């Protein structure tokens, strides 16, 4: 009989082996459904899908960029004076970017996450989370709430853009919040998965850990596994 393997180890393996975004999204979904429950997570995904379908605007006709890129001169020859990408190619890029920002804004508003002035409605999001997660264990609910509040504080500390970005600050804050929330929710779920499988690890090798505190053990073990997988985070360039 196979022994139960913590999902966190499966995810560590997946991040090292799977490069395809679809594969990684599938792995993420499996972790979320295992952590939050299929009804909770898939129910929320359905709401997002419905809002996305309503907000979706037809993308501009795909442009074959190769037909609008100036052929570079061979090595040693004089550089061409014309731009690498012509006006039609750049215009297509602009339209695509505007379409994505517009659709994102629409979806966030339909879900109730953005107010009319495009500021984030943290109160609504916290209340929604409390309702969605009401059936989960209290310690998991507490950790999810702390993770969201951390992302809220981080997002509101985002400085005003000094580089004259065409994306409004409130939209960049919304994008930063979602990125942070997804990452911290994953960490919370990994921690609670580890708590269910602590017997699979001999933690005597971890210095200074109090074995009677499962939260502390799981947190330190999670950091060990993160350090094992986060090779790129230790690179200086």
Task: Provide key terms for this protein.
237 residues; mainly alpha; globular
Brief digest:
This protein has 237 residues and is mainly α.
Describe this structure in words.
The chain has 237 residues and is mostly helical. The chain has a domain at 121-237. Helix content is 60%, strand content 0%. The protein contains 8 helices and no strands. The longest helix has 27 residues, at 169-195. It is globular, with a radius of gyration of 23 Å. The two termini are 45 Å apart.
Write down the overall geometry.
globular
**What is the radius of gyration?**
23 Å
Report the major sheet.
Answer: none
Beginning-to-end CA distance, first to last residue? 45 Å
- Helical element count? 8
Summarize model confidence as the mean pLDDT. 82
Question: Structural class, judged by helices and strands?
Answer: mainly alpha
Number of DSSP E strands: 0
| Beta-strand content bin | under 5%
Unreliable stretches (pLDDT < 50, length at least 5) are: none
Helix content: 55-70%
Order of helices and strands: HHHHHHHH
